[in-house]
Amino acid sequence: MHKLIELLTTDKEKITNTKAIVTPRFSITNEEFHDRISKIAGKLSEIGIQKNDLTGILSENNYDTIELIFALWRIGAVPFLLNTRLTCREINGYLDFAKPKLLFIHSDIRAGKSNIHFTVNFYPFDLSNEYYPQNRIESNKENIAVVLFTSGSTRKPKAVALTFNNIISSATNGNELFHHRKGDKWLASLPFYHIGGFSILVRASLFGCTIVIPEKLTTNAIKEAIDNYSPTHISLVTTQLKRLLEINAIPNKELRMTLLGGGFLESSLIKKSLIKGWHPVKSYGSTETASFVTALKNHDYYFAEESAGKPLSNIEILIVDKNKNPLQPMKSGEIVIKSESIAKYYLNNPEETSLKFSDGVYYSGDYGYLDEKGYLYIEVRREDLIISGGENINPLEVEREIRKFDNIEEVCVLGEDNKEWGQLVIAAIVTKNRNTFSLEVLRDFLNNKLASYKHPRKIYFMSKLPRTELGKVQKDILSHLIEVNDSLKY
Question: 386-488 belongs to which homologous superfamily?
Answer without folding.
Answer: ANL, C-terminal domain (3.30.300.30)
